[in-house]
Structures are given as C-alpha cells and as structure tokens.
Fold:
Amino acid sequence: MADCIFCQIANGQVDSEIVYQDELAVAFRDLNPQAPTHIVLIPRQHIVSLDAAREEHSELLGHLALVAAEIARQQDLAEGGYRLVTNVGPDAGQSVAHLHFHIIGGRPMGWPPG
Ligand code: DGP
Structure:
C-alpha cells in the first residue's frame, strides 16, 4: 500500500532502526517507545489488523508469533519477561492500519492495561 507508513518502512522508503527482517516479516524500534525495549513487528503483506486476517494467513501469523519470541530472546527480554500486544481498532488505540505486534519489555508492567 503506497500510503502506508509500515509498508514504506518494510520496503525501505522510510528509515527506521530495523532489528530483524526475513522474507515475510520486518521488525523495527518504535518511534515512541513505551519501555526500554519497544519493537514493532509487522508482516510485509499489508493486512489492516488482526480483524482482517483470515484462514489463508494462518501460517504467516504463526511465523510472526515465533519471530516475536526469537526477537525477544535476541533483545535479552526472555528471562525478565515481555509483553506481545496487537491493538485492533479505535478502542484499543490502533493508530497505524497495518497489522503489527508490539514487543515491549525491560521494565515491570501492570495488568490490566489502562
Ligand atoms: P498502534 O498504536 O498499536 O497502532 O501502534 C503504532 C506504533 O507505531 C506506535 O507505537 C508508534 C509507531 N510508529 C508510528 N509511525 C512510526 C514510524 O514512522 N516509525 C517508527 N519506527 N514507528 C512508528
């Protein structure tokens, strides 16, 4: 999608600090970090949100989950723990309409979120 900021990051049109990439996924540091480590993981494929995902995306979603865990290990988050979040729609505060997972860690976090 030409006007999607995350598509532009994935294809290199917009700079970001990329921490992981493969043929299906890209992960980069969040512009507005909410914790010492805050990484955004996206599929290269433009999917608006988890609500737009379908059966055909099952393998991709499984891949993203495993990649998130791998990134967390690479970033030394696994021992202390981390949170994996995807915001869907306005009530959750989704601000970029491209499916993404936040990998957040490096500090204790409360539950439930505000
Ligand atoms: P969400 O609120 O769940 O849609 O999260 C979108 C996140 O994306 C938000 O935490 C800030 C981040 N973000 C938005 N635009 C950019 C950008 O251009 N570069 C980077 N690195 N992060 C961005």
About this structure: Residues 5, 14, 16, 28-32, 40, 87, 93-96 surround 2'-deoxyguanosine-5'-monophosphate (CB under 6 Å). The radius of gyration is 14 Å. Strands lie at 18-21, 25-29, 37-43, 82-85, 101-105.
